[in-house]
Amino acid sequence: MKELINKSLTKAINYTEYRELVSNLLAEGKSTGPNQSDALLNYSKLNDKRMKRLDKTIKLSEETKSFVESVDTPQTFLVLTEGWCGDAAQNIPVLNKIAEINKNISLKLVLRDENLPLMDEFLTNGGRSIPKVIILDEETNVVDTWGPRPTVATKMVKDYKEANGSLDADFKKDLQVWYNKDKGVNVQEDIVAILKK
């Protein structure tokens, strides 16, 4: 496992590089990942717009800022993601804002489909759900994980699946509405709770 993590870290990119990668691929009419389709391209375009908006509008709470600024142990948030993933577009800008306020927190991103052996070590309910954040200490030991969604959204997904069997377009629309109203607060709460452990 440690070898997999270290190998992934050697090819990981920072948030700015990730945003540039997604934008450059879109300019070529492509999404990230080996599978290309009109649907994935459209999701990627929508997510690129979401991330641009969130980069400008996400505000960290005073509690989040205060706690994150006090973190004095170096750590890395290694994130498995893809440009077409709606949950990633909503959550990674928040993680970036958190990492920006403390030099002890390094945000590194890798594409899921280029790192399936790593992804398969961190499945969610047997699935390759992203974004998946692997929180590492200075020696690249796994401290904790987070994802693919904040706790409130995770409960929404679970409840809807139990009631309806699967997620449909209506639910996905409702989830995006929830993300827009939440404004990254639940992600902040989750990450602060993990860092406090």
TrEMBL record:
List the source organism: Tenacibaculum holothuriorum
Q: Which SUPFAM superfamilies match?
A: Thioredoxin-like (SSF52833)
This chain belongs to which protein, by name?
Thioredoxin
